[in-house]
Amino acid sequence: MTSQLKDVILTIDEGTSGTRAATVSADGDVSCLEYLPLEVDTPRPGVVEQDANAILDKTVAACRATIAQASQAGLRIVAMAIATQRATAVLWDKNTGRALVPAMVWQDTRYVGELNKLAPVWDSILAKQVGRAGGVRSPYLWAARHIRETAEVAQAFAEKRLGFGTIDTWLLWHLTLDRVYVTTPTNATSAGAYILAEHRYQRDWLDALAFPQELLPELRSDADDLGRTNADVLGIDVPILASMGDQHAGAIGLGCLDRGQAMCIHGTGSFVDLIIGSEQPAKAGLFAGTTTMVARRRNNQSQFAVETFAATTGSALDWVCEKLHWFGNATEISRLAAEVQSSGGVTFIPALTGLRTPDMQPNARASLTGISMASTRPEVAYAILEGIAHSVASCLESDRDVSGVDIAELIVGGGLSASDPLLQMQADLIGVPIRRKPNTARATLRGAAYLAGSRGLFWDDIPRSTAFAAEEQVFEPKMQADMRNERRALWHARIKSELDHANVFAAHETDR
After folding, report:
1. Nearest CA to 390 among 276, 505, 293, 272?
2. Cα dihedral sign for 375, 351, 248, 26?
């Protein structure tokens, strides 16, 4: 007698720093996990790039390793789901299938000057329709510049063999048998030309960027029939039933689905999303760095979130440890921070690629101030974590003010959420409970699979995750309101000083 195979969904979590593949079953169990790291290149200030070919190759390798594990474990893969970093863009040759130039990563700010010139005409329009102003980066402007300035890209475009898309499009085109050329709303909103209320591109804005619209991937839903896998590439033939941005998949996997629930994923940056439901925010465009996103689109209906992020929090810790060698690793920073009650007046602003909140200022930079002869390593460690906690608090304040939705709780995930001192600082500075659920590193994988299985494969709706219920931990605010207000006021003053300095620098560069 043979045992019955257990049905699972093969899920990809393709992030900025690495690619994961795993299987997810109907009970939420994540197994057969494989991980391969990715490199990010910053050849000059403002330019952030990755090798798209390496992203693809490592994604395929991770999937094949997971598939082999699943076979040995008696698991039957019945579908695939994909979660990806969102606004990272690729240009490729459809004949060879290989990328023609390095991918532009979502942290890139090289075209901020050109976007600023368009801002007076376009920002108010975009904020209302697309959910974000022109901002500091645009995949469409990046592609248009390469078509104009890079001979190999220009030739591929002229010969109608140029492909363009964010990482979801890049992977779907390669992994599907029929070379499906699509994108989904949770990715398209980050790219900056998707009209939220109408599920279509803002084509006038694309014209203003000189982007050739024949390159646009077809818009689909995040939960959709997105083709079948190419068995020659992956070794399996199954339907792809979901593709979405990694942040939004993480929200589903963490059970952050309802209006008033907020989520912070601490990865390369710290992304803060507040779920607001089916209505768009009351004050869209109030802050340039606070954007309206599609949280998920399913059955032709969109749910929205308001999102703000601090771009370099996890990467700031990596920088402090790996480049400056001040600490061995992030764990040591947390251990030392727990030894003291304050930073002793030391302040750290984790703005290695600029500030987004309260103002969008790419010329702002990270800083460590308030150091005296009496300052200690534990106080510096405390200041580094407190800077991240303040950044998250500022993000939530902006999300609340733009949406008009009160925050009931903050659910946290990602690597830095393992730090108890950081989460207690966040609770104290925000004034709401912080809910940490175990195994959050797998939330993105679980969330994408939940969406893929929510249209009848495993469930009739997105399931409420019970995978974390047993051991979740809640950090309640301990700081008195007057002390919280004082600490936040000092932080706002420090940020204003940095913004003033950055604005003077920007004006000086403009005059040169």
Report:
1. 272
2. negative
Q: Is the peptide bond before 350 cis (omega within 30 degrees of 0)?
A: no
- C-beta separation of 293 from 273 below 8 A: yes
* Angle separating helix axes 481-511 and 377-403, nearest 10 degrees: 90
Query: pLDDT tens, 400-446?
Result: 999 999 999 999 987 888 999 999 999 999 999 999 887 777 889 99
Backbone angles phi, psi at 183, to 5 degrees: -140, 170
Beta strands in 246-315 (DSSP E): 261-266, 270-277, 291-298, 301-310
Which residues lie below 8 Å from residue 137, measured CB to CB, with a gap of 6+? 87, 104, 106, 107, 108, 109, 110, 111, 112, 115
Coil, strand, or helix at residue 214? helix
Residue type, 480: Q
Contact, 238 vs 80, CB < 8 A?
yes
Please, what sign has the CA dihedral across residues 125, 184, 466, 391? negative
Q: Is-contact 445 11, C-beta < 8 A? A: yes
The pLDDT tens digits for 2-28 are 468 999 999 999 999 899 999 999 999
DSSP-based three-state secondary structure for 176: strand
200-239 pLDDT per residue, tens: 999 999 999 999 999 999 999 999 999 999 999 999 999 9
As a whole number of angstroms, the distance between CA 478 and CA 249 comes to 31
Residues 6 or more apart whose CB falls under 8 angstroms from that of 24 comprise 8, 9, 11, 30, 81, 445, 446, 449, 450
Q: Which domains does the chain have, with CATH numbers?
A: 6-254+437-471 (3.30.420.40), 311-403+480-511 (3.30.420.40)
Q: In Å, what is the CA distance from 402 to each residue of 114, 257, 290, 307, 372?
A: 26, 19, 8, 10, 39
Query: What was the pLDDT predicted at 268?
Result: 80
Contact 396, 307 (CB under 8 A): no
Q: What amino acid is encoded at 151 in this protein?
A: A
Tokens found for residue 296: 């998920």
Q: What pTM was estimated for this model as a whole? A: 0.86
* Residue 161, amino acid: R
Of 461, 451, 14, 13, give the one whose Cα is nearest residue 225. Answer: 451
